[in-house]
């Protein structure tokens, strides 16, 4: 096991990783920007090192500064968390060059699964269901038109190097495809430094279902079942739950097993998530693979009992996976996560930086709070607006929703506005209760 880990992140996930380090008996070094100098979790670290001014580019996204902090603190590993540098192969490579273990996959495995065209190819090979579409990057307009004819409209043009929902164009007919294909490639080149684009079938109505997988350095890999993250706004997930409501184990098991084969084929170690869209017939189509720990990983922890963050540290330290697939067994009960953001839902989700003078988090049976916020905390304006993840576990989905609503009513935050009232409304929406939602449902509701 490592002696000392540097946590290259901030906020709730920095604290989450710190807690895992504590339980493993590993020293934890935090880094922080000047905007986070008073963050309460820094006091829990063995050492905290300032890495620069507030803008992420000059601190949490600055590879040289993070590596310098790691050298000064003499750590043997870096945990990147999510966001920031977590999916940058050049950061994983910089760690390796400095003989620091990156807690995540090798830069090669990350690059292969992070490139949408290469990933789709590997997925096909592993038997993971993918969207019908172009097998390679599209070279010219006529080729795009030919493929679109085969798969049928609507189609979506995507950038192979795309991310964060950017660089995608939906085309409902041949004229639109012809008009967009060149522009999409030019735009991808400008945005991502890689002009490769491809097309695939566009699914109008779908749910978002994702499989949590984890692999070790000895070829071992398991899945931890699925999460349903259909309640989204502008491609940002608001609520995640596990298991996916009404989904038969026989339907999801082959998809989960294929996801395991995919990470084995990519020689992948650490945690990964295979994201899918599921149509109304319950058929799956892979979107992409996220090569890091996800925000919503705790819902899976609640239904499987596996500590994902500790497990990813263990496997990256060279240990074999501590569980077999049989030991994971069936999902236990139901879990829900509400992302509590410092945003005002009544005013188009306007960010709400500032001091929190009242912070009264919920508790009681089945409630877990993942947050770095305490009374008096000042939410900085520079970063993501998420201030807490409310996690609830219960025997059944209905009980879990009732319990989540109960917890949300206990949760008091003043004077900044948060997404708590929206979550409370959603817990009582008939469509949510009946699972009659799709990835565009929330945006329709908010209109
Ligand atoms: P990114 O890496 O930019 O997040 P994804 O491939 O994960 O790109 O797609 C982002 C979102 O775009 C998905 O969550 C989904 O809402 C929509 N999307 C992507 N591909 C399709 C598709 N083939 N059909 C319908 N919606 C899609």
Short overview:
It is built from 15 helices and 22 strands. By secondary structure, it is of the alpha+beta class. Adenosine-5'-diphosphate binds next to strand 8, strand 12 and strand 13.
Task: Walk me through the structure.
It is a single chain. With 447 residues, this protein is an alpha+beta fold. The protein has three domains: 4-103, Rossmann fold; 130-201, ATP-grasp fold, A domain (Dna Ligase, domain 1), CATH 3.30.1490.20; 207-446, D-amino Acid Aminotransferase, Chain A, domain 1, CATH 3.30.470. 34% of the residues lie in helices and 26% in strands. It contains 15 helices and 22 strands. It has helices spanning 11-24, 63-73, 89-97, 107-114, 116-126, 141-151, 174-192, 249-265, 297-304, 308-316, 325-328, 397-410, 420-427, 430-433, 441-446, and strands spanning 4-7, 27-33, 47-52, 77-79, 101-102, 155-159, 169-171, 197-201, 207-215, 221-233, 236-242, 270-278, 284-290, 334-341, 343-344, 350-351, 354-355, 358-360, 367-371, 378-379, 386-394, 412-414. The strands form six sheets. It has an eight-stranded antiparallel sheet, with helices on both faces. A hairpin with a 5-residue loop joins strand 15 and strand 16. Helix 3 (89-97) packs antiparallel against helix 4 (107-114) and helix 12 runs antiparallel to helix 13. The longest helix has 19 residues, at 174-192. It is globular, with a radius of gyration of 22 Å. The structure holds adenosine-5'-diphosphate (ADP). Adenosine-5'-diphosphate binds next to strand 8, strand 12 and strand 13.
